[in-house]
Structures are given as C-alpha cells and as structure tokens.
C-alpha cells in the first residue's frame, strides 16, 4: 500500500477497479435487458440453424427444450445451473421415453454451445454472468449420437456375406414365392443363378 496523492491510503488503480466497474454495470442491468438478449440469442440461433438447411418444424424443436426449462424456473439460460437441469428432468421434465429426455438434453447443450461461442463475452460484460452449459459430465446422456464415423466392411467380408446369403436364400423362400419367381419353369432364380426347384 502506498500513499495516494492527497493523503489517501488505498489500492493502486488497476484491474480490480475494472472488475468492480463490471460488477456495478451488471447490478444496474435490468431484467428486461436480459430477457431481450435471451430472445435475440434464440432468434439468431434459429437463423444460424436455418442456414444449415433445417426444416421449420426441426427449428422449433431445437429451441423448445430451452424455452421449457427457462420458463419453468423463470431464469435466463446463463443463470441456469446443473442442479436445476437435474431436478427438472428428474421431475416435471421427465418423459416415459428416455430418448425424448436424451434428445432434449442434447438440444439444450447445443444451444449452450452456440451461446458460449457468440454471446459469452457480451453476457459477461452486461450482466456479470458466465455462460456455462448446465449439461455436465454427470447428467450428460450416455448415448450422445456421436457415431459419425462409419467404417465400411472390407471387400472380402462383403463377398463372404453375400455368398452366405445367396446359399441360404433358396431355403428361406416360401414355396409360393419360389414358384412365382420361377415363372412356371420348375427352377428358382437366385441372384442370377438358376437352381433346380
């Protein structure tokens, strides 16, 4: 601590003053301003997904879970906690089908990824809140749908599969189907080969 000019003792001006100023700005921000930013972020999210070529029905289903949980707790998304998300999907948001809950949680998480990318700085600056998804490692659904990479079978495996299928096909066919495919000639055609009927 050093003496300031004028005989006042205290901290030197610096980063702490800037943080205090941001907290004061956040304290004076109105609920209407937060609500307006929330609506703007939802609209921009829908526009961004629309550019990706999604249908209007799909676009509506992307924001519906976010609107449901935020209206249930009457909070802005940047004030929503993991505990609130857990309580919601363990109680009023729970559905009989687990896939519905999983898809809603994934949609909420996707909206938060967008919010963190595009609005985190503005939200922190204006409202003093840190944008962080309430979907964490503990409440994240087990099946997240990240099976994008599909490795096709080898040519050998494909040939073996179709050879075995070709051999089993005559025994799998019912008699009327075999006769119909025969055309009345007494033979069954299987994958381009004629076999006795």
Question: What descriptors fit this protein?
Answer:
elongated; mainly alpha; two-stranded antiparallel ribbon; 197 residues; 7 helices
How would you concisely characterize the structure shown here?
The protein has seven helices and four strands. The chain is mostly helical. The model has no long low-confidence stretch (mean pLDDT 79).
Describe this structure in words.
The protein has 197 residues and is mainly alpha-helical. It contains seven helices and four strands, in the order E-E-H-H-H-H-H-H-H-E-E. The chain has helices at residues 15-28, 31-51, 56-73, 82-90, 98-127, 155-172, 175-182; strands at 2-3, 9-10, 187-190, 193-196. A two-stranded antiparallel sheet has the order 1-2. A two-stranded antiparallel sheet has the order 3-4. Helix 1 crosses helix 5 (98-127) and helix 3 crosses helix 5 (98-127). The radius of gyration is 31 Å and the shape is elongated. It starts with a strand and ends with a strand.
């Amino acid at each position: 601590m050093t003496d300031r000019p004028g005989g006042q003792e205290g901290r030197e001006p610096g980063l702490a003053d800037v943080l205090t100023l941001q907290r004061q700005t956040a304290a004076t921000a109105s609920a209407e301003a937060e609500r307006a930013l929330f609506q703007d972020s939802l609209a921009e999210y829908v526009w961004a997904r629309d550019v990706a070529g999604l249908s209007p029905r799909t676009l509506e289903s992307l924001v519906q879970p976010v609107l449901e949980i935020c209206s249930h707790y009457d909070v802005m998304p940047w004030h929503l906690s993991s505990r609130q998300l857990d309580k919601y999907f363990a109680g009023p948001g729970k559905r009989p089908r687990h896939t519905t809950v999983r898809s809603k949680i994934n949609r909420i998480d996707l909206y938060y990824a967008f919010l963190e990318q595009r609005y985190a700085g503005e939200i922190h600056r204006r409202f003093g809140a840190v944008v962080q998804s309430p979907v964490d490692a503990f409440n994240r659904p087990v099946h997240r749908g990240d099976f994008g990479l599909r490795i096709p079978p080898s040519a050998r495996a494909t040939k073996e599969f179709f050879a075995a299928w070709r051999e089993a096909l005559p025994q799998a066919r019912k008699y009327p189907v075999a006769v119909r495919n025969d055309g009345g000639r007494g033979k069954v055609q299987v994958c381009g080969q004629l076999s006795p009927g």
